[in-house]
Amino acid sequence: MGSHFSPAPRLPRLSSPSRLLPALLLGALIGFGTPTISLAAEPAIADIQKMVKQGQNAQALEKVDAYITARPKDAQGRFLRGIILTELNRNNEAIAVFTKLTEDFPELPEPYNNLAVLYAQQKQYDKARNALEMAIRTHPSYAIAHENLGDVYAKLASQAYDKALQLDSSNSHAQSKLSLIRELIGNSSRPGKAPTAASAPPPVAPAPAPTPVAAAPTPAPVAPVPAPAPATREPAKVTVLDKEKDKEKPAPAAEPARVEKEKPAAAKSDGDDSAVIKAVQSWAAAWSRKDVKGYLSFYGPDFQVPGGASRKSWESERASRIDKPGKLQVTVDDVKVSMNGDKATVRFKQGYTSATLKSSAAKTLVMQKSGNKWLIQQEKVGS
Amino acid sequence: MSLMYTRGNSGRRFRRTAVALIVLVAAGAAAWKGASLWRKGEAPADAGSPSLPMATATYSDSGPGLHGPEPMLANIFAQIEQNRLESALALTENLLERYPKFRLGHLIKGDLLLARTRPLETFGNAPDAPADKLADLRAEAMVRLRGYREKPPADTVPRYLMQMVPEQKYAVVVDTQKSRLYLYENDQKAGRPRFVADYYITQGKLGAEKSKEGDKKTPIGVYHVTSSLPREKLADLYGSGAFPINYPNEWDKRQGRNGHGIWLHGTPSDTFSRPPRASDGCVVLSNQDLDAVAKNLQVGLTPVIISNSVEWLSLDDWNKERTELNRQMESWRSDWESRDVEKFLAHYSDNFKSGAQGLADFAQQKRQVNAGKEWIKVKLSDVSMFRAPDKEDYVVVTFEQTYRSNNLNNQMKKRQYWVREKGTWKIIYEGAA
Lengths: 383, 433
Fold this sequence. Notes:
Chain A is α+β, with helices and mostly antiparallel strands.
């Protein structure tokens, strides 16, 4: 299969607190009954979100638990808790959180959507379908849910075909890549809302307004599915968690055409160029075969640990993530190298396939030559 | 007629596409019309037995009325035709709830789901689908819908069921081209066979007209059930039971046909049904259908007539044919009693053969025996007559024969094969049944 799946997902773009604020206001307006989406809580939520971005999920969970204890009905906090649990692969707990949210806030489509993402990960596509249909029932023009639903239909169709034709495609087919919504936007104009990342350049393409087809009220027998244009994907579309990636600097993926050698280094030599590429490939290979020690050996002593965590805790977190059961494959494509003396900036497309995830994203490594080895100094998502 | 979804003009709007494709199915259906269409649950105009409670007759195959696979399939296609894809999907899910291993149902479900994400191009849009399996399911859809829409015409009888004896409660008639098995009840009150139900069947991989061992074909001819093999004694392939039939029969042997092990049987546990052409020559039913038919099968008695394409006769024509052969039988019997041995022998074909004995030996023996006869009394009873389908053109006659004479009394069950030669019926084989 595959051709009808979404193209390689782009990286998460997370909205800044300042942009989120008006959205939350609107969210409070559409909610009925429990106006617990409290504005006062916003800074605390933003702090926790920041921790999540930095991969400090355990700490973030503690914080969010404390936050919720104080405000047991707060949708924002509970939603974030669901996200963190998902990040921690505690999917059943995440499902419980999102399920409860759909019960308490049936008008919010995001919990339904995320519930669907989790069900789809468990291959419970019927449940995923039901959840997405609920999301669309509340918000008929919700493009992400439509897109996700399209993927779920495709998976269901694939399962049906397997039964019809006695195929076993469960192993050969890519895991579906449904989009998890990472923030509760609470805005009726969801698909058009384009949250801007705090520290990243503006998106390459402006967020397209939902297509008229998608926006049409849908008592129609079949929900129209908007055809997503790969080049102009809505920034709000956030891919399922590529958990292996750093998220400290989310940036939109530039299209390959834009990637070029910015600073042709005077001292560039072909030998170094290929040594750098070889190093990156070895790094991906070590990662793929779950050789934690080998993988970590590519990081230089001056490696800038994301989120300012200690090198030690970063290493142990990487180790625990990489060394998980199931197949793992990391690929490196479209490599572009910019040399500057003993420094190299390597931009490439990183493909990642695990038992539960498949993604592709732009990545940048800043590398430093140390003796005859190239070591990673910085690792960034985006280019 | 192909069961293909065609791309609508826009090429992108799946709904139009889906409609276009089903319209083709419907166009096919129009081509299937011609014979009177019995609507679901509707009784055929059965003038012969107006008093019969129609509840006992099932005019949809397998299973309780409207919930047989074919009425459900027909309903699904009707919904698609009306562009009610949501409803079609819901009905397909109902169908699969009832028949979870119905591969064709899963295929349709796949299409209906996929239609929500992109235009359909064909019937069965599974990517990388093995072409043969897809073709099998298409063929199954075709014959099932056709079988559902083309019920046997009212007031007709399969030509082959010329005469049944009271003991024979039911008869089985198979149409290999339609992949259909028709069950008929011997309605003695009405004095004719009465249609009970019909079922989807699978025949040999390479079709019908078996002649050689291993040719993967289903035989055409008049047979009967010779035994019953319970599920416990069978491999999973045979499903819920098996009923061997007497292929090769005397006629087949005369034609030099061989092979063995032609059965009616069920379906393996991993599927609800098999494609229309899939067996090694056996006639295969779904397990529930086999169970339904099996209740009516009598070992040694129930005729199983397998045709390429069932020929239906009006009651008048049917009566005419059976009367004519009965008259011929009576002529043979009375000529035997007359002790005019040449007149008697004139009923036998030049090609007559019984075991190793040809006509000359047979005639010589009859002449010898006849010399010692002062009187002969022959009584025939329980005469059944089953005409072979298609170009075979023989009739299997089975009866109780009570023979008395001045020097010998004998009672036996006899079987004869009668063939049409130059406009008259002649005996080409006879022997103990």
